[in-house]
C-alpha cells in the first residue's frame, strides 16, 4: 500500500521528533559526565555550570521533539504517529553506543531491528489521513455518540483511579498511575490532533481560532497534559523506569489507537488484512521495546537508576524529560 503525501510529511515529523527526544538523553548524560570530570571540590562552579547547561540543552532538544510530534498529528493519523514514538529509544541506544561508549549488545541490536521492522510495517499499511477543511469537522467527529461514550468511560475510569485507587494502591501497583496517564493521554492526542489541524489550516489562510471549538480543544490539551505530567512523575518517583516504560507504551498506544479508531474511523477504509498487519507491526514494536528495556544495562555495570533512557511515545509520554 502506498503512502500519501500527508502521511509522508507526518512520518518525517514523527521520526524527527524521535531523533530529538532520543538525543536529549544523550545530551544530558554527556554534559553530566563532563561535569563529573571537572571534580566536585576544586571546580564546583564549573560543574554546576555544565550541569545546568546539560539540563537546558536537553530541555531544548525535547521541546524541538515535542513541536515536531505535535505537527505530525496535523498530517498523519494517530495510528501512524503514536507507535513511532518507540523509535526514540533506538536513537538513544545507538547514540549511547557511539558517543557514550555504552555497549549495545546483541539483544539491544535485536530490539532495535524489531522496532524498525514494526515501524516500517505500520508506515506501509497505515490508513490515509482524512481530508479535513475545518476544525468544526473535528468537533462533529468528537461529538458523535461513539466517541462521547468512550470519552465518558475514560473520564469515569480516571476519576475512579484518582479518588479510589491512588490512595489505596498507588504506591504498590504501577498500573494505577500508568492507567491514569494512558487514558488521559488518548484524549489528549485526539485534542492535540484537532489543535494541530486548526493551526495548519490557519497558516494556510483559513483562520480556525475564530471558532470556539478550537479553544475548547486547546483547554482540553492543557488540562490533560498537566494531569499526565503530575501522575507520570509520581509513577517515575515510585517505580523503576525500565518497568514503567514498556507498560506505559503499550497502554498509551493501545488507548490512543482505540480512540482514533472510534473518533476518526481510521480503519473504515481498510480491510481485515491491512488492519491485522498494522496490529502485527505494533506487537513487533512492543517486543523490540520490551527487549531493549529489559536488557539495556547488560554489560554496563556503572549505570545508575537516574540515568535511564527517556520514556518514549508521543507528545504525552515524553513529558518526564521536560520536567527534569
TrEMBL record:
Keyword Cell inner membrane: no
First-listed, main subcellular location of the protein, grouped into a coarse class: membrane
GO MF, one example: magnesium ion transmembrane transporter activity
Entry protein name: Probable magnesium transporter
Quaternary context: Homodimer.
Top-level taxonomic group: Eukaryota
Function: Acts as a Mg(2+) transporter. Can also transport other divalent cations such as Fe(2+), Sr(2+), Ba(2+), Mn(2+) and Co(2+) but to a much less extent than Mg(2+).
Polar residues bias spans: 313-324
UniProt-annotated stretches for the region Disordered: 301-324
Family the entry assigns: Belongs to the NIPA (TC 2.A.7) family.
Amino acid at each position: 500500500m502506498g503512502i500519501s503525501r500527508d502521511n509522508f510529511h507526518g512520518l518525517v515529523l514523527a521520526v524527527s521528533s524521535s531523533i530529538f527526544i532520543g538525543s536529549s538523553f544523550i545530551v544530558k548524560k554527556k554534559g553530566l559526565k563532563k561535569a563529573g570530570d571537572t571534580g566536585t571540590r576544586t571546580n564546583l562552579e564549573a560543574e554546576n555550570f555544565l550541569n545546568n547547561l546539560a539540563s537546558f540543552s536537553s530541555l531544548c532538544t525535547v521541546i524541538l521533539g515535542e513541536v515536531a510530534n505535535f505537527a505530525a498529528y496535523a498530517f498523519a493519523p494517530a495510528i501512524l504517529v503514536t507507535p513511532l514514538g518507540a523509535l526514540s529509544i533506538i536513537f538513544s541506544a545507538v547514540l549511547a553506543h557511539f558517543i557514550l561508549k555504552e555497549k549495545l549488545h546483541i539483544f539491544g541490536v535485536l530490539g532495535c531491528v524489531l522496532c524498525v521492522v514494526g515501524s516500517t510495517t505500520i508506515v506501509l499499511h497505515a490508513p490515509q489521513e482524512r481530508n479535513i477543511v475545518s476544525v468544526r469537522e473535528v468537533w462533529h467527529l468528537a461529538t458523535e455518540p461513539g466517541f462521547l461514550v468512550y470519552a465518558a468511560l475514560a473520564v469515569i475510569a480516571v476519576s475512579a483511579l484518582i479518588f479510589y485507587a491512588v490512595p489505596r494502591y498507588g504506591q504498590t501497583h504501577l498500573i494505577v498511575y500508568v492507567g491514569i496517564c494512558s487514558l488521559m493521554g488518548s484524549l489528549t492526542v485526539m485534542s492535540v490532533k484537532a489543535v494541530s489541524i486548526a493551526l495548519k489550516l490557519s497558516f494556510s489562510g483559513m483562520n480556525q481560532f475564530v471558532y470556539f471549538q478550537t479553544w475548547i480543544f486547546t483547554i482540553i490539551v492543557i488540562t490533560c497534559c498537566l494531569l499526565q505530567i503530575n501522575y507520570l512523575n509520581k509513577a517515575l518517583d515510585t517505580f523503576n523506569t525500565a518497568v514503567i516504560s514498556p507498560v506505559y507504551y503499550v497502554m498509551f498506544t493501545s488507548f490512543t489507537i482505540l480512540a482514533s479508531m472510534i473518533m476518526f474511523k481510521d480503519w473504515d477504509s481498510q480491510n481485515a488484512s491491512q488492519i491485522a498487519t498494522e496490529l502485527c507491526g505494533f506487537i513487533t514494536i512492543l517486543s523490540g521495546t520490551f527487549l531493549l528495556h529489559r536488557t539495556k544495562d547488560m554489560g554496563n555495570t556503572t549505570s545508575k537508576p537516574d540515568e535511564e533512557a527517556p520514556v518514549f511515545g508521543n507528545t504525552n509520554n515524553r513529558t518526564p524529560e521536560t520536567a527534569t
